[in-house]
Write a structure and sequence with these properties.
The chain is of the alpha/beta class. Helix content is about 35%, strand content about 20%. Helix 3 (about 115-125) packs across helix 10 and helix 6 crosses helix 8 (about 245-260). Its cofactor is Mg(2+).
Length: about 300
């Protein structure tokens, strides 16, 4: 008996700064293109051009949309696939799914970009074999995807860990940059927050500078909150800030034992080193995750 060929899938990873459209032979990337995330019309029309070319060459079996949030991810909600109130100018109330559905009749799945990346790291990357993980991306914003037993966590909406408030270091005065909450964790350590709080651009600041100390403390407080609230087996930290400033992860790892104060005795330094890590898939986590969303909707519909 011959084995069936993998389905021809496409993915859209809609990020705050750039959008990546991907063609896959199943979840194996065949072709990928990066586009700037500008206005909804410009961005999705540019994505549509690539998807249409792929569709014309051979029909797409499904499309996965992995978007920045907040976005409605409940399939039976009337506004499923719609971006809600967001700091990204011009994107609030954008019906992303509706705009893609206008051109394609195949099944289309929607989830957050971080949930998609978490699925990819769980299936193929740094969280293989783990029943629970959190994927954090630190870039234009800060988002986190949670996967339990291979399924992304949804609820009233989806996890919005970037907007929780964490304990500040004694004497900390930076007010934060989040237009909604000021000093939530996104407002403290996202890319725009670092540009506002550090003495020079983050890319020009010596990793050994004490100006990074409070930033490392803030990230460690977030990690402590996640460990105590969710008890994940792996925390994967991606995004432009994390990959360009890996010393921040090391600072946070070293700070964690003092914050936890011995409460989780299994988390010795060696265990923390393994548990909290960079993505094994690197920048491919999001694109692969968008293809996984497409594959999963075919499985769910038994297509």
């Amino acid at each position: 008996m011959t084995q069936a060929s993998p389905p021809r899938l496409a993915g859209i990873e809609l990020g705050g700064t750039k959008t990546i459209v991907t063609l896959g032979d199943g979840t194996r990337i065949l072709e990928s293109h990066a586009l700037p995330t500008t206005t909804p019309d410009e961005t999705l029309e540019a994505a549509h051009a690539h998807l249409s070319a792929w569709q014309a060459a051979s029909p797409l079996a499904a499309i996965g949309i992995a978007s920045f949030g907040p976005i409605r991810v409940t399939p039976d909600a009337p506004d499923y696939g719609t971006i809600l109130a967001t700091p990204k100018p011009g994107w609030s109330n954008t019906g992303v799914l509706e705009m893609v559905q206008a051109h394609f009749a195949c099944p289309i799945a929607v989830d957050t970009d971080v949930n998609a990346a978490a699925l990819a790291e769980h299936a193929f990357g740094a969280a293989q074999g783990c029943s629970s993980l959190v994927y954090i991306t630190i870039g234009t914003g800060l988002g986190a995807g949670i996967v339990i037993d291979g399924r992304p966590v949804h609820g009233l909406l989806h996890p919005e860990l970037g907007h929780i408030r964490t304990r500040r270091a004694p004497g900390a005065t930076f007010a934060g940059t989040c237009p909604f909450h000021g000093d939530c964790i996104e407002g403290l350590i996202s890319g725009p927050a670092l540009e506002a709080r550090l003495p020079v651009h983050p890319g020009k600041l010596d990793p050994a500078s004490p100006a990074w100390d409070e930033v490392g403390d803030d990230l460690a407080e977030l990690l402590s909150t996640l460990l105590l609230a969710l008890s994940p087996q792996r925390i994967v930290i991606g995004g432009g800030v994390a990959t360009r400033q890996p010393h921040l992860i090391e600072r946070a790892r070293k700070r964690l034992p003092a914050i936890l104060a011995g409460y989780l005795p299994d988390l010795e330094p060696a265990a923390i080193e393994t548990m909290i890590c960079l993505p094994a898939l690197g920048a491919s986590a999001g694109p692969v995750g968008s293809l996984l969303l497409a594959r999963n909707i075919l499985i769910e519909r038994d297509i």
